[in-house]
Design brief:
Blueprint lengths: L1 H35 L2 E16 L20 E10 L5 E6 L14 H10 L9 E7 L11 E7 L10 H61 L1
Antiparallel strand pairs: 1-2, 1-4, 2-3, 4-5
Length: 225
Amino acid sequence: MAASAGRKRKAIAMGYIKWVFILCFWAIIGATLHYTLPQYDVVRIVNTYEERQELGDWTRIFWSRPDTQSAGLENRDVQFIQAVRPNGKPIVYRNEDTGWSWPPYFKFDTANLYTEANDAVSDKDDPEWVRVKHYGWRNQTLSIFPNAVAISPAASVDDKPTNWTSIVILVGLGFLILALYIRWLRFKARRIDPMVEDMEDGLYAMGDAVSERTQGLRRLFRRSK
């Protein structure tokens, strides 16, 4: 009974560990996709400016690295685009080339985009709404800014395009993951499960043998008294 209860506790603990690992894995995948895939905002641009930014050790991953020189710099000048959402909340974008690095937007037109942003500046009395395609997150505490990729005119505050790029990528990934999962289940049923069962049977048999040997030694020790 004690051995059976111990096996049950170990199985439950292994189950918890497995689910924690699975949840962490998918949380990382989801965060990577959310950061990398394009998003669209309808905003009113109010200003553009350039500012020197310190590139922190671990926050460096949130800044573009369009060339190898950027990897060795501790700070550099970055262009920013200030905007206001239809609900009045501010949003600030950085304007950096991605070059050939990740994520693969192959953006090389920072100067042109900066000019377009300046040309679209308007005030609240005569607003000019634009659609900003971007990727990344905005975090004030860590000074993280989404990177603007493209700017296009918007007919109204509701003129937000369907994000077909993200839809196609997510659907494609879903089918790929499903296909890999089916193949994994088949492989696991054919190869891994039998091996695991044999190993478990061997370990349980070894544990039972050690337990019987220990009980026998205890009985022998008691008789000798």
